[in-house]
Amino acid sequence: MTLTGFPIFIEEILFAAVIIFVTTLIYKFLMNQNEVRELKEKLKEKQARTKELQKTNPEEAKRLMGETLKLSNKQFRMTMKPMMVSLILIIIVLPILAEMYGDKIVTIEDNKGVLNLDEKTYNLELTEEKLILENTECKIPCNDQIVGDYKWDINLEGENQVKFSRIVVLLPFTLPYFGNDFGWLFWYILISLIFNSIFRKILGVQI
């Protein structure tokens, strides 16, 4: 059972929206947005001018490159404070999300183990790479297995551990390198990038 009662992928969308909105506000109020905007315009102009002069006037181009570097360093220094505050927030939040949605590791002793999930206990047995969980069994690796209210990819982790990787999003097709399911972290990163772009545009935040 999730905190909100929604499916995990929706609950993560809600959490990501709140977190990214807060971090966007941090950048908005801890950085002088007008100064950042002017700085970016100057950088763009100097970079374009440097490109024009590289062949006709190398010395002037070199001088402009030095000025561009100084402006870039200034821009970086301006982002340091909001970046550190945002990083602290992420460091606090990510372990909480990992605990809520992350993998479950079950230690096997004498071919048996116990999976604790949502205040429920599931007994499992592992024999010759075949996993028996309650009234179901599969040959490891087991994909898209339903345990409790969720789907899991199940794999061996070392010699005496079984890893249950929670599936947050299951695609109707397979992507190269990614497969057809996403775990909590990949899904969080993906939707965070989307929300970051949306909120920066809405709030007029320059980074």
Question: Layout of helices and strands, plus pairs?
Answer:
Blueprint lengths: L7 H23 L2 H24 L1 H44 L2 E4 L4 E6 L2 E8 L2 E4 L2 E4 L2 E6 L2 E7 L4 E7 L1 E7 L3 E4 L1 H20 L4
Helix pairs in contact: 1-3, 1-4, 2-3
What do you see in this structure?
The structure is a single chain. The chain is an alpha+beta fold and 207 residues long. The chain has two domains: 8-101 and 183-203, no CATH class; 104-171, no CATH class. Helix content is 54%, strand content 28%. It has four helices and ten strands, in the order H-H-H-E-E-E-E-E-E-E-E-E-E-H. A four-stranded antiparallel beta sheet has the order 1-8-7-6, with no helix packed on it. A four-stranded antiparallel beta sheet has the order 2-3-4-5, with no helix packed on it. Helix 1 packs across helix 3. The longest helix is centred in the middle third of the chain and has 44 residues, at 58-101. The chain starts with 7 loop residues before the first helix and ends with a helix.
Q: Could you provide a short overview of the structure?
A:
The chain has 207 residues and is α+β, with helices and mostly antiparallel strands. The protein is built from four helices and ten strands. Strands 1-8-7-6 form a four-stranded antiparallel β-sheet, with no helix packed on it. Strands 2-3-4-5 form a four-stranded antiparallel β-sheet, with no helix packed on it.
